[in-house]
Amino acid sequence: METKPMIVERVYKRTRLKLSHEELDSFPQENPNFRVESFTGGWNYFVNESLVSFVEQR
User: Fold this and answer.
1) SS (H, E, C) the chain
2) What is the pTM (predicted TM-score) of this model?
């Protein structure tokens, strides 16, 4: 079963970041760390919290 690419978008001030993660179905789905929900949660955290915090410190 082929999955659609996961896309995370963030606009911060005048910067737009669009992240696309493809080929998610190539990872073993029996491992919860490799499920689409895990990737989505991780990328959303990175883009919406961690990266914003880093940029604001600059």
Assistant:
1) CCCCCEEEEEEECCEEEEEEECCHHHCCCCCHHHCHHHHHHHHHHHHHHHHHHHHHHC
2) 0.69
